[in-house]
Amino acid sequence: MNHSRTLKGTLLVLALSVTFPAMADNNWQTCKEKQQQIEQQLQYARANDNQKQINRLNRKKANIAQNCSNEDLRRKYTLRIDKLNYNLNDTQRKLDKALAKKDSHKIAHLQNKLNENKIKLQQAKQDFARFEQAEKR
């Protein structure tokens, strides 16, 4: 039973890790914010008569208009938070094990990792809250 649970958890982390590497920070914006940012970049490109950049931004703008969904973004946020919660719990479990064995080297390493995971989770929750607020505007 434990092996099944561990395998499921590992598969969840692997599945989620495939989802997130391609996401840049600005992917956490609402669809409207993405459109506004591209429009600003287009104004700058037009002012500098950079036709190559104008063409690229127009394609990007059309892609966002056609494919961007705040529901998809919301799902990505919640998946990110779920992944970070899983990592936090996994690290806590490993730390508990190291504490029981009194392995001071692992304890220090895992305590640092636990603190990092807490910070990442807190940031992800703040990002999600910002997204939720921005979407209401």
List key phrases describing it.
single chain; 137 residues; mainly alpha; 85% helix
Name the structural class: mainly alpha
**Percentage of helical residues?**
over 70%
Count of helices? 5
Silhouette: elongated
What multimeric state do the chains show? Answer: single chain
Structure description:
- With 137 residues, this protein is mainly α.
- The chain has 5 helices and no strands.
- Helix content is 85%, strand content 0%.
- The termini are far apart.
List the helices and strands and how they pair.
Blueprint: H1 2-19, H2 31-47, H3 51-67, H4 70-101, H5 104-136
Helix pairs in contact: 1-4, 2-3, 4-5
Care to give the gist of this entry?
It is built from 5 helices and no strands.
